[in-house]
Write a structure and sequence with these properties.
This protein has twelve helices and no strands. By secondary structure, the protein is an all-alpha fold.
């Protein structure tokens, strides 16, 4: 059960990064072109589907919640969103489709983390620079290249666990490698990454609260 929870948590985190809408098309400078892994993990929701649902008027949060519940219930996201339009409640929608309410609580936790990062970016950048042994300007350069701050937090944790440079990890993401494949290359388990991210996020939150 613990392993399933960890996999679900990291899967949800990966979807947050995908739905951030930040296309990391511009490569980080001085990084060699990396060979793509041919067999990638099936994505939770394709970019084209996100664009289609956005055009229909759905918000990023609705698409995200719908995608997670769809995966957990083995339903299509269209079916999930149609039911949500009737119930007007994610809890009721999840219950009717047989999805554990605790999964939604994990999602809520990640949403709070997302808001925390967005509203305290300067503090996050400062702590992340210290954690990754880089300057704040280095972190800001990544952001200028289109790398989301939330992914930088994950990349920093992966870098610390694997001993690889953040530039290398970011380039894997730019190559559109799946979360699963990146961890496989870095030889990091889901459990170790989850534990490191939990501690890193706690430290960032504590640092933000101390500066308020």
């Amino acid at each position: 059960m613990k392993k399933i929870t960890i996999v679900f948590f990291t899967m949800v985190a990966a979807v947050f990064l995908q739905l951030s809408g930040t296309a990391m098309a511009s490569p980080v400078k001085n990084i060699p072109v990396l060979e793509k892994i041919q067999k990638q993990q099936k994505r939770l929701i394709e970019k084209e589907k996100i664009e289609e649902l956005t055009e229909q008027g759905y918000t990023k949060k609705e698409i995200f919640m719908g995608a997670i519940i769809a995966r957990k219930s083995n339903k299509s996201i269209d079916e999930v969103l149609a039911l949500y339009q009737k119930t007007k409640s994610w809890e009721i929608t999840a219950k009717e489709l047989g999805v554990d309410i605790r999964d939604l609580q994990k999602i809520e936790s990640l949403q709070k983390w997302k808001k925390l990062v967005e509203s305290n970016s300067a503090a996050v950048i400062s702590y992340l620079a210290q954690y990754s042994d880089k300057s704040e300007n280095d972190i800001k350069d990544y952001l200028k290249d289109g790398v989301p701050l939330r992914f930088l937090v994950s990349a920093a944790a992966m870098s610390k666990l694997s001993g690889r440079e953040m530039d290398e990890i970011i380039s894997y993401k730019q190559e559109e490698m799946s979360h699963h494949d990146i961890l496989k290359i870095l030889e990091i388990s889901e459990e170790k990454l989850h534990k490191e991210l939990e501690q890193l996020r706690k430290n960032i939150e504590d640092n933000i609260n101390e500066t308020k």
